[in-house]
Design a protein that fits this description.
Strand content: 25-35%
Number of strands: 15
Largest sheet: 7 strands, mixed
Helix content: 25-40%
Shape: globular
Number of domains: 1
CATH class: Alpha Beta
Bound molecules: ligand LYUYDEPV
Length: 262
């Protein structure tokens, strides 16, 4: 499966500018001879962290982003791990991730369950109430979590126990905690013996500098690709996804784990 991973600088509080950026990026990446099968976008990519403006910027029930991604998916015959967006539901605004397949169908939707206090999310957003679940693209079981979720190993373990072979992390992770960003992704890959694919942003907003360094890590924890800190970048990489069963056989942590004790 060939991946195209988006690392960009967002325009905070300006969804139209960000839709335009993502459309241009998609058209550019899909114009390559060796086209990706799957594209990965970052967290809150329509608005960025313009939290105090979300009451008028958040879209209702994905009414803008879903048709937008469906249109691009069908135009280019490509799957989207569609990052996340500020999503107004009946009882408040959620940080909602979405996955759209190349037929233009919504495959999966997930509301971030761990809101990040360090970026003040709990003051503006509602926390999701449903555990992240596995979805399939081209017959491969996968999962998606959103940024701060990375700190909670239980969430990724639940996805791995459901059979996820690839974990996607869509993020706006700050530069101040870059060492955590890198170490935790490697830890999730190693302990769950799965691939980790992440998309982060660059730039600075409201005094917070973002870390970039979007990554691809294999099930042994080896970094296969890494974007720089302060540069827009597209990571393109072929993942054979054959390594997971072999690694799980060689180091059988899923057989050795004591589900009877914890
Ligand atoms: N957008 C986020 O969830 C940021 C997470 C973060 O800053 C951290 O975990 O540290």
């Amino acid at each position: 499966m060939r991946y195209g991973i988006c690392q960009i600088e967002l325009v905070p509080g300006n969804p139209n500018a960000n839709y335009e950026k993502i459309e241009q990026w998609t058209d550019m990446v899909m114009a390559q001879q060796d086209k990706p099968d799957i594209l990965v976008l970052p967290e809150m990519w329509t608005t960025a962290y313009a939290l105090s403006d979300l009451h008028h910027l958040a879209e209702k029930n994905l009414e803008k982003t879903l048709p937008f991604l469906k249109r691009l998916a069908k135009r280019h015959q490509v799957h989207f791990i569609g990052g996340s967006v500020a999503n107004q539901k009946n009882d408040g605004i959620y940080n909602t991730a979405l996955v759209v397949n190349k037929q233009g169908e919504l495959v999966y939707e997930y509301d971030k369950v761990h809101l990040v206090p360090m970026l003040n999310e709990p003051a503006y957003l509602q926390e999701g109430q449903t555990l992240a679940k596995v979805f399939e693209l081209d017959g491969i079981k996968m999962g998606i979590i959103i940024c701060y979720d990375l700190r909670f190993p239980e969430l990724t373990r639940a996805l791995a126990l459901e059979g996820a072979q690839v974990l996607h992390i869509v993020a706006e992770w700050p530069e101040a905690r870059t060492s955590h960003w890198q170490a935790l992704q490697a830890a999730r890959a190693i302990e769950n013996q799965c691939y980790v694919v992440s998309s982060n942003v660059i730039g600075t907003h409201d005094g917070v500098e973002f870390a970039g360094r979007s990554m691809v890590i294999d099930p042994l924890g080896k970094v296969l690709a890494k974007a720089p800190q302060q540069q827009e970048e597209t990571l393109t990489i072929n993942l054979q996804l054959t390594q997971v069963p072999q690694v799980r056989q060689d180091v059988p942590v899923f057989k050795s784990r004591r589900a009877d004790l914890y």
